Amino acid sequence: MLQYAYFPGCVAQGACRELYDSTAAVATALDIELIELKRAACCGSGTFKEESQLLEDTVNARNIALAEDLKLPLLTHCSTCQGVIGRVDDRLKAAHTENPEYIDRVNELLAKEHCSPYRGTTEVKHLLWAIVSDFGLEQLQARITRKLSGLKCAAFYGCYLLRAQTHLAYDDPYNPQSLENLFHTVGATPVEYPGRTQCCGWPLSSYATDQAFQMAGMHIQSAIEAGADCMVTPCPLCHLNLDSRQPEVERVVGKTLGLPVLHLPQLIALALDIDPKRLGLDRHVVSTHPVLQKLGL
To answer: Are residues 85 and 162 in the same domain?
Structure first.
């Protein structure tokens, strides 16, 4: 049985609760044990470093150390968390040899809070990488009980998952194929379009809202023009900008869009024939009914 120290992050426990629920459903169906890190802190979503790099590194060194205490990889289903925590892990692992005094400073701060030291002995891994590389697509295919035949899916990787870390062994950061390979595995058809590896606009949304929504609208429209029935994203922050704010995006771009946006584990769960009601598909702002209808659900 695969085991992970599970870092659910903030958004999946609040605005995107359906991501939390569908991740649990998929893990159970695939016999993956998730040991939730109840004492973990928010990764900072890239904002801590604006105040202090040491702050971002110390907070996330603590998160990684919680996984190290369990001798397990840290698993997240949020691309932003993956990018931030993974980047910190990269930086601190390099500092062990290049700047050991910095590691000492981080661990001194952790000790003041009675936390375990950062040791650099584990790995930060997104759910997508865990499914593709650890569980394996062949194993997943053997578990599929409902082929998602006829469903055209547009992958939306976003930024953090692909390019935040110095070393990314799982996929090409500029021409990834992990999601597309997963779509084939569950019987769906991948749709290629220009925006799949670009920013959704979320980081701009608090201070350049129209520009953020224009970015999101451009990607959604491009996916629609390519024939997509839905988008699938491994990032809840991307989901917020692409789904929850899609009505606002429509007002900015002056077009009706109406493209459903699924979380990665929701798509996998549908192929495992898990009841859609367990997956929170009714929580989305853009109705997922067209997707379920196309699948005969």
So the answer is: no
